[in-house]
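pinging the channel bc i need a second pair of eyes. not urgent but kinda urgent?? the chain im working w is below, pasted from the shared doc
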Amino acid sequence: MANKNPEWLDNAIFYEIYPQSFCDSNGDGIGDFNGIIQKLDYIKELGCNAIWMNPCFASPFGDAGYDVSNYYLAAPRYGTNEDLRRLFEEVHKRGMHILLDLVPGHTSTEHKWFKESMKASKNEYTDRYVWTDSIWVEPDGMASLRGISDRDGSCAVNFFSHQPALNYGFYKPDPAKKWQQPMDAPGPKATLEELKNIMRFWLGMGCDGFRVDMAGSLVKHDENGKGTIKLWQNVRGFLDKEFPEAAMVSEWGEPDKSLQGGFHMDFLLHFGPSHYNDLFRCANPFFAASGKGDVFEFVEKYKESYEKSRADSKHMGLICIPSGNHDMDRIARHIKGDNLKLAFAFLLSMPGAPFIYYGDEIGMNYVENLVSVEGGYGRTGSEALYSA
């Protein structure tokens, strides 16, 4: 049976909120859930009827919340679980929908799962992460943490060194490397079931689905994404049974894979083969006033992705082109004035649901020369405070 998009996605226009810098309701210098509630009428007046909110779970904020320390607890800086539930309710009162940002591929080193996995004695979390069986062996093709506990082994990390990789198994484990567990081993299966529990918890609280961070990266040594596609098909089966109206948007950048896995939408990414930034962020963006930009490679890749996304009638979905996000320069850093209006005319009229990064609707610029905050580095200038 074909994937059926939730009906509300047919006319969805998303507004992406970076919660720590969007709207501060209590004067502590950090945005919060109540601040978002205060701005819901403004967001709706813009014409947006859906929200993607960046990670809002408990975290040490070494990577702006993409390093989760408790998936079941709202970050206290933003409010309580009940405040978040109230945000869901206020969104729904206005006929809008909201997606949470889900980070399934790694946690913070401060997560209790990781602290337990570091112990030398075997326990239920020993295989929750990708560990080698010797401190002298690093995981193939991945950076790692090593020498941090009594456990003899190195733990793979997905990006920053404080983001240990959760274990969903290897698509084709090397028999000579016993630490490479297959997808159906007890550890990977437990990780997958816990992912479902997390989704079940927040969907039960009232969120309308998830934007999934690094969705294509879960299964390691994955041949053409086959293992990760299978994993998400398993999740899709769970959602279809328990939460059929839950929307799933992937940060994958390969629509033919993500849609086959059961996602309703996939982003064109600012990295990889999409040539998305040829339009907005490069030496000579296509939409910039210089007129020197080249759109050819983008068009060719977009056509290829579009055709793939519709090649199988069982797995049809949407390709989304965002105005920007927390990971890239503000669009107004490169495109100004009427050219910016043209860029938005393009973004809002292409197939797929539009995604507007907060502040882009007023031409909010990149703030130059800011000191990195909470793992922002070059991204920090795109995450400056919007309103108080």
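so DSSP finds ten helices and twelve strands in the chain. and The two ends are 48 Å apart (CA to CA). — does that match what u expected or am i reading it wrong
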